[in-house]
Amino acid sequence: MADPQPVAQQVASENKTSTETKSTQPPSVDAWWKQIAPQALWGPIEAIGIDKILETPPGNFLGTFGLDIAADLLEKLREAKDNLAGPDQIQFKVQTKAPTKTDLRNNAHKFSLRYPADIKDTETDYMLFQFYRYEAPFGRGGVGTFNFQRNFAQQGSGEYGTLEEYNLSTTNLSIDTQLSQVVLYMPPDVSSTYGASWNDKSFSNTAVAKIRGGMALRRGNIGQAAAGQFENLMNAVGRMPEIKGADFIRNEIAKVTGESLSRNDLFASAAGVVTNPNTELLYDSPQMRGIDFTFKLVPNNKNEAEIIYEIVRTFKKCLHPSFGVPGREQGGKTPGVVGALGKEAKDKVGFISVPSVCKFAFMKGGGLHPFLPQYKTCALVGVDVNYTSDNGYAVTRDGYPVSTELRLQFKELKLVYREDIGEVDAATLKFGNNKLLHGGH
């Protein structure tokens, strides 16, 4: 008896005819090159990765080999350009749908994984996720488009002089060529939380006087500063008997009973007063924002099931570091093109590289959504995948889960300042009279 399968969520199976079961492929790749190479060379060939090239049938070998070399050289040209002129500014353009069963190791960024597969990216609201290589904020500095003032004078070498310079390492980034864009439906919970840290602080009367006197001196008002310090001195002299008396009693009690009492304990219990705490609420710092999204992914057919699998795999790859220091070049299909420079992960033991980062955006049609908040580039700090989100284990006859719940946790790499809010590209605002009221972070 066949295994029971979900009805409403069952992925449609492909009909297979008897003729499809017959092999129409060339002889196995292994048989092809292993029949030529001595068996003693099989191990070394596989160890250095040449077998990956030889997996291509002989008829397409030279063409594929040439494409691999071209892809690796293109990656090097991208890196040379970024080193000279800086990475490009992040753009928000949905790429074409990713082809199936294709090795996109060096060009995955040119395609998008979409769920639902038929989402109308030119008409509806959706989320766009793009992946970039981490830019060390104090390393290359993310110095953006080549510009004399930026590269040699004000930006990229000293302190942050402008908000633009502060943001450059998260607005001008090198694309992660190994990860495709991800397009997902708008999540059910779209919210934005802002926070600031304020703390209460108490000051002694003397500290208040010293601070106020110092500020008077800074303004050049020497007379006011001197008068304030004299006033504080006279008040302190007037409080001296009470203070010294309280200290004497505290010491005597501690000697006899071991109890530790404060001055205010004595003042409150004996006279019903306490010293003035001069408490103020002071601004401490802005807070970094954390953002969570949850998506429920239910495939309607086998194609969507494969897309969901790739989407989950993409976010997991973004979350995790690479072993060693692979250099800035990525991919490396052709042995020697990247490896000859010693920049592959296996050549740099003792280190791991920082994971890629994610820039996501709420989109409306072909542009940024004008009425929803946007976020700065984020680190992906958590990926939770639940393959039994319907409270039970159920898969299709192909083995794909009939329902996958994907929870993504992000944290912004940069603080949000007032100047960030309201920086709007007017070209993306297609309606509304008060355009300056919309957009920004």
Please describe what this structure looks like.
- With 441 residues, this protein is α+β, with helices and mostly antiparallel strands.
- It has 2 domains: 28-197 and 288-437, no CATH class; 198-285, no CATH class.
- The protein is built from 10 helices and 13 strands.
- The protein has a 6-stranded mixed sheet with strand order 1-2-4-3-10-11, covered by helices on one side. The chain has a 3-stranded antiparallel sheet with strand order 7-13-12, covered by helices on one side.
- Helix 7 (205-218) packs antiparallel against helix 8 (222-257).
- It is elongated and about 100 Å long.
- Residues 1-31, 337-346 and 426-439 have low confidence and may be disordered.
Largest sheet: 6 strands, mixed
- Class from helix and strand fractions: alpha+beta
Q: What is the succession of H and E elements?
A: HHHHEEEHHEEHHHEEHEEEEEE
Parts with pLDDT < 50 across at least 5 consecutive residues: 1-31, 337-346, 426-439
Q: Based on the structure, what is the oligomeric state of the protein chains?
A: single chain
Rounded to an integer in angstroms, the radius of gyration calculated over CA atoms is 32 Å
Q: Largest beta sheet: what is the strand line-up?
A: 1-2-4-3-10-11
The number of E-state strands comes to: 13
Please supply descriptive tags for the structure shown above:
three-stranded antiparallel sheet, alpha+beta, 10 helices, elongated, disordered C terminus, 2 domains, six-stranded mixed sheet
Brief account:
The chain is of the alpha+beta class.
Blueprint (SSEs and pairs):
Blueprint: H1 29-34, H2 42-48, H3 50-54, H4 61-85, E1 96-97, E2 111-115, E3 125-132, H5 148-153, H6 163-171, E4 181-185, E5 196-202, H7 205-218, H8 222-257, H9 263-270, E6 279-286, E7 290-297, H10 302-319, E8 322-323, E9 352-353, E10 357-364, E11 367-368, E12 378-386, E13 404-412
Parallel strand pairs: 1-2, 2-4
Antiparallel strand pairs: 3-4, 3-10, 5-6, 7-13, 8-9, 10-11, 12-13
Helix pairs in contact: 7-8
